[in-house]
Amino acid sequence: MKRVALISAALLGTIFLFGQNIMKLHTGNEIIQMEVSETDSLFFTENGTIANFRVAGNLSQFNVSEIDSITFDLEPVVDSTVYVYYTGTSASVNNPLESVGVTAEVDGANVTITSTAPIAHINYVLSGSSNEGSFKIYSDERIDLILDGVNITNPDGPAINIQSDKRVTVELVEETNNSLTDGENYLDPPNGEDQDAAFFSEGQLVFEGSGNLTIIGLGLDQHGLASDDYIRILGGNITVSSAVKDGIHAKDGFFMEDGNVEVTSDGDGVDAGNDNIEISGGVLTVHSQSDEVSAVKCDSTLIMTDGLLDIEVSGDKSKGLNSNMEIILYGGTVDINTSGGVILEASGQGYDPSYCSAIKSETLVMINGASVTINSTGEAGRGISSDGDIVISGGSLEITASGDGDTYTNIEGDNDAYHGACLNADGNISIIDGNVTLSHSGDGGKGITTDTDLLIGGSGNEPIIEITTTGERITISSGGWPPGSGDYDEAKAVKADGNITIESGEITIDSADDGLKTLDTITINDGTINIIQSEEAIEGPNIIINGGNISLVSHDDGLNATYGNGGEQNDGSLLEINGGYIYINSSNGDPLDSNGNIHINGGVIVVHGPQSSPEVGMDVNGSCIVTGGFLVVSGTNSNMTENASPSSTQYCVLLRTNQQVSANTIFHIEDNAGNSLLTFKPVRSYYSIIFSSDQLSSGTTYKVYTGGSCTGTPVNGLYEGGTYSGGTLKTTFSLSNMAPTVWF
Length: 744
Hints:
SH3 type barrels, elongated
């Protein structure tokens, strides 16, 4: 408080006793100059740590502890603005600060400013036009560069070259058009100075205002706009219309809060170097044209909270958003269009494919609130690719891809295939919430692929997911036995090398091949799963269903528990159903299939099986144990048709006939009292029905009917309520063991 009192006394005494004109605030290495006549007030915070100066209506705050001294000057206020005006091959400089250490050297239209003045934020106003000019400045203090309708072309180097490591604020004056163009070949700089761009700065660059700036980068080994520190965009309309290297290049970060930036370059569009990219507003548009470049790139975290990213990528192996660390999209809108393809790079005994990806991270891609739209048309193009994890916990994501995959020789010297994918991760993929729409029409193209685990949903979250694949399979090798055997890369909707866990959500899949495929365990605890078309709907060594509403339509198997080794032996796989509602419609495969065992402990399972042998309604290499639930399966007369195991603890009946029953013919079971246990209308002709219910009991006689009609409501062929009538009694039976076979 003693320091506060001394400052106050010094100010008041000096101002009123001596009528000073200029007040100079000394803080560290800076001197802040204020006009006494425009100083309205000085006041301190209650704790005395902050001094508030209100000058010309603007409030400036300073830490009291950082104020070294305050001095005053009797001289009139010096104009702290230097004006540079270009006219063709010449330039003129109006420099009112020469006496305090600002010098100007003019050679034709090449202007070099050297400032040793201890004054921060000197204004340098550039205007006029020159086709043979430049602006270069050396300064020990922060400067303000004001572009007021200036057009500079320098055939021999940068148009603007700031050789100061201090912060530069660049104001683009309202309603002005400014342009900067460099030459193809730069002259050697003095003292080994950097001169890396048409607009170059050693220090931080901060753009503000509402005017227009166009940068035309022609330098053969140069960027368009570059800083050896960070670049921050607070306003203005900036267009980098060309650059041989990066359009915008910063060593220590790129930060955008407002304004409009458009970049077209042969190198990276925006490269933020070793630091972050942070976008919280404005519009950033990038046209990336070359192979093996990135539209927006950094070695650290890329984070977006608001604004618009509009990106076009046409080069092979190129990337839209690319980070060596995390890419986190909390908000805003991201639109990325890629047309680049794959590059096969020689490696080992063959090649290693490198892909064009809209979004690529080495650690994590997270979407939590942003709206992301990706369209990929290039060969084997990828939507989002992560060497680590992908997490979607909010917002919306729509990826449309159409590029075909193809065959190649891998690094081991073996035949292989590369393919595109909407989502691809070496680590885990988690879709916790949000709206996700994925569509891939390319050969071998996939919706989701992960080398580890996939998690969908979670407590209190309801993600909405739609996945469509329509591409043809890629033949890697063909032949072998049985016919049709071979090695193929199919257009699967979801493929995980680890576990798939579904906790909640609404999932719709339309697949040219598998709907959900895992090499480990798939666990469905809840949610709505609707696979409207597939070759095999759900496949994996272990399939565990604890709940959910599941509808599966497949050409081949519906639920297929297998390690993929084939054969009729028990391979240890497991299909376990503990709850939920499951509807399966398989036209040419086994709806319930396990190369190991089947355990049915609960749930409602309604199955429309195939109509022709050798496929059956339920195929199990081990044993099927039924302990609870409701099960009805229509099937064929194949000699592989089998019932549940007698070791079951709930009755399960296999009902068979040698006479084919036509499609859409009701199959009905009731007890002697006329109570209905089952009224079921299979969509295909059938020879067998497998039925299990906790209503079955010993000591009761049951009647079996076919045909007739029911006034109830059919849900997936199973009638609920109503009255059955008009059928033909085929047989009666009673239960003598847990898994009898009854002929009708």
